[in-house]
Structures are given as structure tokens and as C-alpha cells.
Amino acid sequence: MLRTARYLLSSALLFAGTLAAGAQTLELNAGHVLSAASHYHAAAAKLAELVGEKSKGQIKINVFPAAQLGGEVKMIQSVRTGTQDIVVTGEAPLENTVKDYTVFSFPYLFSSVDEANKTLQSPIGKEMLGLLPQYGMVGLGFISALERNTFTNGRGIKTAADMQGLKIRVIPGPGYVTAYKALGAQPTPMAYTELYLALQNGAVDAAENSPDLFLQDRFVEVSKTFSLTKIMYMPALIIISKSRWDSLSPEQQKIFREAAAEAVTFAIDHYKKDYASALETIKTSGKVELIEPDLASFRATAPDVYATLLKEFPQAKPWLDKIKAQ
């Protein structure tokens, strides 16, 4: 009888200990607007995997793709207020809050994805991440920049003159709106989740994005041309809520820093492979016309566009000088 009582007590204590251990597990939610095939998701999933491993299961990150937690503007605001833990986002929606980031809306700031990524992983990138805490966010790292090309449901874009009057969906970032307006287009800020239908029903004539996302998000179904205009190279980054960050122990913060560094490298490689594969698919599918436009005509517009942007966003000037001085 006594042995049975001891056994039951021991079992109860073991069960209680298991519950206590489970209660100590920290769960965080991460969101992004792209599909589970994207490099945004690759970054978030790899971060979740590595944080789980490095914390021995004591930290769990739940990843919600495809705007399940809302659009980028909403998620950024939720991270700032602490109601969402992590977001993987393009930088353009951050321009509404972090005005210095408008420098990334300057057309032809970089000549390639590799050049953009080199800057983002340099001390300049670290400085720019360092701007975020004052806005309630902590930047865990820049993942690969996205090459922004132009696709249409009508006429193709072959020279800068073809941008005149083009009603083009742009990311809701002030720099993007100003830049495309200066190029002669009619920029239409719109949530990414609304774009497919807008192209389908003719609410917009065009949009801009990377080849991989053009395929992954099925815009190939509602487009006639894809033009390699390479106007911008938009950085993307992993952000954690500052309130959540401040609640972590130094050891937990170290885990996140190490995991994020590995996730960044993984996502950069993921994007590079997806980009090459998608471009080859577009070339060979015959579903849309692939255009390699006269980039000289676009680059010739840059001085006037820069002047317009600097007039509206003077805080971008020091960053522009740093990037150009590299």
C-alpha cells in the first residue's frame, strides 16, 4: 500500500514537472505575405528551425505565410506595438516609419542583386538595422534583395518612354510612389494580396516584382509581358518586436542572433536559385513575352528622379552618399 502511494506520488510529481517544463516553452509568431515557396518563408522557417535547435526546444516559432497575419503594413505595426513577434518584410512598407529607408527606392541604386546584398551585409547594412530600435523594432538581418522588374497585362515595356501613363501597382511606400511618378508612370499603391485581381480586371496595367514571385504567386496567369527593367533592388529583412526582444534573456538573444545569421545566408542562396530557375521557366514557357529592354534609356532618367526624391526625402542623402562611396 505504501509502495503504491509512493509510486503514485512519484508519477504525479513527474507529470507536474513535465507540465512545468512545457509551460516554460516560449512560443512566438512570425508572419510574411509571400507563399511558402518564397525566400521570405525560407528565412522564417530556417530561423524557426535553428532557434528551436539552439534553445533545445525551449523556444518555438510558428510561421504564418501568405498574409495570414495581415498585410505588411499591418504586420509591421503589430510588431511595433508588440502584438506580433516577428515579421519578414520588404523594406518599402517601412519607409512610412523609417524615412531613411527611402534611399532604397532610388532607381538603379545597385547594378545587381549581388551588389545590393554586398551592401546590405556590410557595415552600412548594420547601421541601417541600427535605426530600427527607436521605432519599436529590432532588425535581425537583411535577407536577399529582390530585383524589381515590370510585368503588364498589355503592352510591353521596352524603353523608359513606355512607362509614360502606365498605371502600375507599387508597394505602399512613399519612395516607390515618388520614383515611379518621376518615371512618368501612374503609381497605384495597393496591398500585395489585391494585385492578382487588379491585373485580371484591368484596375491596373502593370506591376513590378521579381521573376520568382511572378511565377510563385501566379501572376503569369494574368500577364502578357515580363520586362527585365531592374529598376530597384528592394531589400528584405527579418524584424522582431523590440518589446519581445527586451523580454529575452542575453542567452536567448544570442541564440536569435546566431540563428538569424544562418537564416540570412540560407535565404540569400534560396533566392539566387529561385531567381535563376524562374527566369529560365519564363523564357521557355511561352506563356508571356519576356522582354530585355533598353536599360540605358532608364538609367538616363535617374538624375532627374534622384533630384525629385532628394527634394522630398532629404534624409536619404547621407545614405546615398555612403552607398555610392563604396
UniProtKB/TrEMBL annotation:
Q: Which domain of life is it from?
A: Bacteria
Q: Which Pfam families match?
A: DctP
Alphabetized InterPro entries for the sequence: DctP_fam (IPR018389), TRAP_DctP (IPR004682), TRAP_DctP_sf (IPR038404)
* UniProtKB keywords: Signal
Q: Which residues form the signal peptide?
A: 1-23
Q: Which NCBIfam families match?
A: dctP (TIGR00787), TRAP_S1 (NF037995)
Name of the featured protein: TRAP transporter substrate-binding protein
* UniProt source species: Rhodopseudomonas telluris
Task: Print the organism lineage.
Answer: Bacteria, Pseudomonadati, Pseudomonadota, Alphaproteobacteria, Hyphomicrobiales
